[in-house]
Every structure is written in structure tokens, then in C-alpha cells.
Design a protein that fits this description.
The protein is α/β, with parallel strands linked by helices and about 475 residues long. The protein has 3 domains: about 90 residues; about 240 residues, Aspartate Aminotransferase, domain 2 (3-Layer(aba) Sandwich), CATH 3.40.640; about 120 residues, Alpha-Beta Complex (Aspartate Aminotransferase, domain 1), CATH 3.90.1150. It has 12 helices and 19 strands. The chain has an 8-stranded mixed beta sheet, with helices on both faces. A 5-stranded antiparallel beta sheet has the order 1-2-3-5-4, with no helix packed on it. A 4-stranded antiparallel beta sheet has the order 15-16-19-17. The two termini are about 30 Å apart. The structure holds pyridoxal-5'-phosphate. Pyridoxal-5'-phosphate binds next to helix 3 and helix 4.
């Protein structure tokens, strides 16, 4: 089956031919690439005229032949064209959750780095990316690594976590946060989250630390996660951890560009971690970094990440090492992307605002925004559907979007529900369970047009109306 799932028609021209109308268009596929195609309209056309300007296509019907309803926006607000029967010759383009935004300047940076000969995990782009990251995260040191997971692993080691230790970890996160704890042979203990940011619940953390203190087994570290690009309630979390002398590793994999008051994401805690995975706010295809103000932590992490090689003419190792360093070529991409960070943040926040506007009137829908203590980076728009007025809405909406080739995703499945962690201890309030049951991540890609957002909104509104 062929489908038209374009987001917006550019330069639409309707041409008369002998017995049919041919509608030539270029379609923004929502990925930055443009696909040319055409619709052949059969003779029973009710209305047609030459049209040459941006024309948002609002209704896309998948089967063949189908009545195609085109409403013209912009210059002709509200006008609806009934244009008869359409044959659609463009394959569906998928609207992804968070595709990377790769621009010409990124390509140039990659090619220049490759041509420079610095293709290994060393070189001027790597040094430059680390300087840029230190500045962006208000930290003295940054170490660019092969992934956020690698950064978590080495960060925990640098904080002194050892085999058999316990590490308190936010329950609502991507598995990598907790996997890194297990790489060391330590045990994650999952702590539930609060409602404002979906991050570590300070009260649950306080209760756990005071109980652990009484039992004489304080955890070796706390891993606080800035989930979906919102920082944690550090005003409460950091003094607590300080009181008990427990170091904090911040998993800011998703939160580069967010803030906590005047502080940048990544600037708080003993050390923090970013990811530059393909779906993150900026990307190096795969990559991550650890940032810290502690020179010794930075030195150790850099050393371990390059196979713990000692400064000798031969390969000398006093410690076990890891091949975790970022390549100079990918760092060049990271630098080019980082230059656009604030632009990307603003676009993604605007996408969320448009979703919020479109869903405002529907009772039981909450579109997550800024937490009270900081500015969200817009990474993924997340929505909660109250299961009382809107039973099973997250699943129904996701399925309706998928039927139109639009990707949405459940929020992270809480770690305490993961089969791999079924034996792990957890401290629960029910919040992460509720967020998982009622939450949904909506497409949030930087290249999404307003028309794309409206298309998603139409599907969401229609599936909620049918509940
Ligand atoms: C919260 C969180 N932590 C850790 C990671 C791991 O980062 P990476 O994929 O770069 O290893 C990710 C994302 O992938 C993440 O979302």
C-alpha cells in the first residue's frame, strides 16, 4: 500500500492535463530531506486551480483510491478543497520521535576532521569539544567518551563505587543508568520519583538514607537522573547527600541545555554525564562525556578511557583500562552541533508549547513543561493522560499514531518493573508506576514543522475523543 504521509507541501502546482489533474509537489519529510512526488487526480474533480505556495496538507488517507481532502491554510484560511479521487504515489515517510538534525555545517566539520588525519581518539577537535562542553556545563573539566553509558561506568568507578556496594538510582530512567552500576558488581536500589520533574523524590531519598544510616550501610553513591531533559530538585537532594557524605553522580544524558536556577545541567553533583546518542538533543552519532570540577576525577576517567596506558614508549598498564574515548572525528560533529544547542532547545520547547496549546481544552491531559526550579531543554515532549477520564489513553493514542506511521513511545519503564532487576530493592511511592501507565513521549524532532505537530495533535485529539 502506498501512503502519503507528508508533513507539508511546498511549491504546490496544479496542472491540467488531458483527462486528469496532476499535482506536483515537494514534500518536507520531517527529516530535513525533500522528496518529490505527485498526486494524479481522476477526472471527477470538483474544483481546481493553479496554486503555487506553501500549502499545509491536513488530511492524509492511506488507501487507494481515496477521497483526498485538502485544506488550504495561510493565504486561504479555512478554505477546503474537495478534489475527488486521488492516486498517491509517494511512499510513507515516518515521523520519528527524535531524529538527529544534521546540517551542512555538521557535514563540513566531519569531512574536515576526517581529512585532517586526526581520526583516532585524539586530536584538536576532541580537545576543543571538551573545552566547549566544560563551558556549556559550567564545569572545570570535561572528558569526551564513546557513550553516556561509558561515562556512567567510569564516573561510578571514579566516585569509588566497588563490587558489593549499594548505589541509589532514580527509578524512572533508561536501563543504562542502572546497568553501569552492575558493571562494577554493585547493586542498584531504585528510588521513586516526584511529580514535578519525574526525578528522584527527595522525601523517598531522605527516608532511605536515614534508614540506611541506622542500619550502618550507607550507599556508595546516588545516581540522580535529569530525565527527559528536566533537572532534579537539587536544592533538596544535594544538601541531603552532603549531610550523609554520599557522592552524587548526575545522569544528565538527556538534559544538556537545561538549567537548575542559574546553573547549567551537568554543573551539579560530584560529576555529571551527558549522552550524544543519535536521538539526543545534540549528537555525535554515538558518544558521551563526563564533566566535573574535580581534577583527579577527570584525570582518572581520561586515563581509564584510553586503556590506562602509562606514559612509556611501550604499552605499560598499572590498572585495567577501557576503550571508551571519543574519536576526534565525532568530536568535530559534536562541536558543530553544540553551536546550535540553544536554537535546538528553543525549537523543541516551541514544539511542546504548540502541543500544549492544542491539548489545553481536553480534560485529563497534562503536557509536561518546566519544573519549578529550572528550564527544561525540550528534549522530548511528554504527556500524561489521566486514566480516570481517559482510560488506557496512552496506549490508544500510541497505536493511532503508529497506524499513521508516526512514532511515539511509552515513557521509560521503571527499573523496578524490569525483569532484569526483579531481585533489586526499591523504595516506591507509586509515582513511577503511574507515569509509566499514563505517560507518552510525542514526536519532538527539531526539524518538525508546525504542520507536523498539528498532524500529531489531530490524531491525539481524535483518539481521545473516541475513548
Ligand atoms: C537517562 C539515560 N542515561 C544513560 C543513557 C546512555 O547513553 P548512551 O546511549 O550514550 O550510552 C541514556 C541514553 O541513551 C539515557 O537516556
Amino acid at each position: 500500500m502506498k501512503r502519503l504521509l507528508t508533513t507539508r507541501a511546498l511549491c504546490v502546482t496544479v496542472l491540467r492535463s488531458s483527462n486528469a489533474i496532476r499535482w506536483i509537489f515537494s514534500a518536507d519529510q520531517g527529516t530535513g530531506s525533500y522528496t518529490k512526488g505527485f498526486l494524479s487526480l481522476e477526472p471527477n474533480v470538483e474544483k481546481c486551480r493553479h496554486y503555487e505556495q506553501d500549502l499545509p496538507l491536513r488530511t492524509f488517507l492511506p488507501s487507494h483510491p481515496v477521497p483526498l481532502c485538502v485544506s488550504a491554510g495561510g493565504a486561504l484560511p479555512g478554505e477546503v478543497w474537495k478534489v475527488g479521487v486521488a492516486r498517491v504515489d509517494v511512499p510513507a515517510s515516518r515521523l520519528y520521535l527524535s531524529p538527529p538534525s544534521i546540517q551542512a555545517e555538521d557535514e563540513l566539520a566531519l569531512v574536515a576532521a576526517a581529512r585532517s588525519g586526526w581520526v583516532a581518539p585524539a586530536g584538536p577537535e576532541l580537545d576543543g569539544f571538551e573545552d566547549d562542553l566544560s563551558a556549556a556545563s559550567q564545569r572545570r573539566h570535561a572528558v569526551a567518551l564513546s557513550s553516556g553509558t561509558a561515562a556512567l561506568h567510569l564516573g561510578l568507578l571514579a566516585l569509588g563505587v566497588e563490587r558489593g556496594d549499594e548505589v541509589l538510582v532514580s527509578d524512572l530512567t533508561f536501563g543504562a543508568t542502572a546497568f553501569a552500576v552492575t558493571y562494577i558488581g554493585a547493586h542498584p536500589v531504585f528510588i521513586d520519583v516526584e511529580e514535578a520533574s519525574w526525578n528522584l523524590d527527595p522525601q523517598a531519598l531522605a527516608d532511605t538514607l536515614s534508614r540506611r544510616k541506622l542500619d550502618g550501610r550507607l550507599p556508595a553513591a546516588v545516581v540522580a537522573v535529569d530525565v527527559f531533559g528536566r533537572t532534579c530538585d537539587y536544592g533538596r537532594i544535594l544538601p541531603l547527600c552532603q549531610e550523609y557524605g554520599v557522592p552524587v553522580l548526575v545522569d544528565s544524558a538527556e538534559a544538556l541545555g537545561a538549567t537548575h536556577g542559574a546553573r547549567a545541567a551537568g554543573s551539579l553533583g560530584t560529576a555529571a554525564v551527558f549522552s550524544f546518542n543519535g536521538n539526543k538533543i545534540i549528537t555525535t552519532s554515538g558518544g558521551g562525556a563526563l564533566v566535573t570540577d574535580d581534577p583527579e576525577i577527570a584525570r582518572k576517567v581520561r586515563h581509564w578511557s584510553t586503556q590506562s596506558r602509562e606514559p612509556c614508549p611501550w604499552y605499560e598498564h598499572q590498572e585495567v583500562g577501557f576503550n571508551y574515548r571519543m574519536s576526534n572525528v565525532l568530536a568535530a560533529l559534536g562541536r558543530a552541533q553544540l553551536l546550535r544547542l540553544s536554537e535546538i532547545v528553543e525549537r523543541r520547547r516551541a514544539i511542546r508549547d504548540r502541543y500544549c496549546q492544542g491539548l489545553l481544552e481536553i480534560p485529563g491531559v497534562v503536557v509536561m513543561g518546566d519544573p519549578p526550579w529550572g528550564r527544561w531543554n525540550g528534549w522530548l515532549t511528554t504527556v500524561l493522560f489521566d486514566s480516570v477520564p481517559l482510560p488506557n489513553a496512552a496506549t490508544r493514542v500510541r497505536q493511532a499514531l503508529e497506524a499513521l506511521n508516526i512514532e511515539s513511545r511509552p515513557v521509560w519503564k521503571p527499573m523496578h518493573q524490569q525483569p532484569v532487576f526483579e531481585k533489586a530493592e526499591s523504595v516506591l511511592t507509586g509515582m513511577s508506576d503511574r507515569i509509566f501507565a499514563e505517560g507518552l513521549c510525542l514526536p519532538s524532532g527539531t526539524a518538525m514543522s508546525d504542520g507536523d505537530v498539528d498532524r500529531v495533535l489531530e490524531v491525539v485529539a481524535a483518539s481521545l475523543a473516541s475513548l
